[in-house]
Amino acid sequence: MKNTALIWAVACYSVLSLSGCVVGPDFQAPVPKIAKNWAPVATEAGHSGTLESAIDPRWWDTFGDRQLSALVREAQQSNFDVQLAASRLEQSLAIRRQINADTLPEVDGTASYSRSRNSQVGLNDPSGHSGKQAFNLWNGGLGFSWEADLWGRVKRSVEAADASVQVAAEDRHGVQLLVIVQTAQHYIQLRGTQQALAVVEQNLQIARRSLELTQLQLKEGVATDLQVSEAAAQVAEIEARMAPLQQRSAQLINALSMLVAREPRALQQLLNAAAPVPAYGADVPIGLPSELAQRRPDIRRAEAQLHAATAAIGMAKADFYPRITLSGSLGMQAMQLSDLGSWGSRSFAFGPGLSVPVFEGGRLQGALQLQEGRQQEAGIAYQKTVLRAWHEVDDALVAYQANQRRRDSLQQAVVHSQRALDSVHQQYTQGTVDFLNVLTVQNVLLANEAALVDSTAQVSLSLVDVFGALGGGWQG
């Protein structure tokens, strides 16, 4: 008995010692290549440039718009896409817990009772009654089984599960960042649309005053019916521009309502009043180029996918080696319930099981090649993701500077157009020019003012694109 126990102890120690062996490649985090020719956009006179300083994780607050900040906070808490991503992360964690359970022994408890009677002419009756009467049978005990992870198959599966959890976490971060960016974009577009509507209303008032003046001049015999018709047509044309802007404003308010998980028009009263377009006047912190991979959720996700694919190779290689399973049971069995706890009712069984792949027709080799191919694919996808990130950052910074230059030029154009309109109105009143000149100059002013409003919004929108491309926001 002592020799048997000693043999079992030595066998178990050997198995546990071998379980430290892990086959397959160990994951090495890739080092993303920094764009050699990329440099932050230099500051131009009167423009906001870039600084290689830490990005504010709550960059939307730097616009100085409390309503925007409040909407972003609400969207992060209530948005359905964020909730769905969080739910998928919880599911991934649950799968990881299931896989990690293979590292521990599985123990089951059993208990049963039966009353039966065996055949008198069949096999031996274990009850000793030769099948002449029924008997009771009580059973109870514990059974366990555990696979000795000799080659690290289970360890690699847990490693792959951890990487899959990281993928789900980065998916959630990506959704959070997207919701922040979309909320900021819709809000800026809404304020830009409201400003454009205000410009149209202002020009409508000017056109109506021109119509009244022309009608008065017609009564005095200075103007003609043609000039009155032209002035009335100008009023109608400007009025026609209001409906699309009002429609666009309502749609943007509904889009924001959807982002914060509210019903249509829920934010109508809150956002219906016009407000300035949120602006950011300082230099933009973009962080260090080497930190881009640490912020962008898509790069972090691609790295986690590469990690999972690398761990899967170890799982495939471990399938080529034998598997040893330790199993056993400890229980009690008696025909009388009063005897169930006695020493004589005990029963036990212990022993190892060995499974060795002998012939599988190339299935294991094919599975290994598949996992190696997936790792190669994940590596290429990582490189592509990093390169795309650099392109997005560079494009966003170029657009930010270009929109600032366009805005500055349009500001000058509006100033000159306003002066021209004041001058032509004075000349028309004096009778030195006809009303066609007034219409032409006013249309130019209206077009320039509308373009300036749009350009001002585009500057802020392109800045949102910069922060989104840099990957900042989900950390806050």
UniProtKB/TrEMBL annotation:
Compositional bias annotation for Polar residues: 111-122
Region (Disordered): 108-128
Matches recorded under Gene3D superfamilies: Outer membrane efflux proteins (OEP)
Secretion signal, residue range per the UniProt entry: 1-24
Assigned keywords, A-Z: Cell outer membrane, Lipoprotein, Membrane, Palmitate, Signal, Transmembrane, Transmembrane beta strand
Pfam families linked to this entry: OEP
Subcellular localization, as worded in the UniProt entry: Cell outer membrane
Membrane among keywords: yes
Topology class, membrane: Lipid-anchor
This protein's record includes keyword Transmembrane helix: no
UniProt xrefs under InterPro entries: MdtP/NodT-like (IPR010131), OMP_efflux (IPR003423)
PANTHER family (UniProt xref): OUTER MEMBRANE CATION EFFLUX PROTEIN, OUTER MEMBRANE PROTEIN-RELATED
Annotated family: Belongs to the outer membrane factor (OMF) (TC 1.B.17) family.
Protein name, UniProt field: Efflux transporter, outer membrane factor (OMF) lipoprotein, NodT family
Annotated organism of origin: Pseudomonas psychrophila
Lineage: Bacteria, Pseudomonadati, Pseudomonadota, Gammaproteobacteria, Pseudomonadales
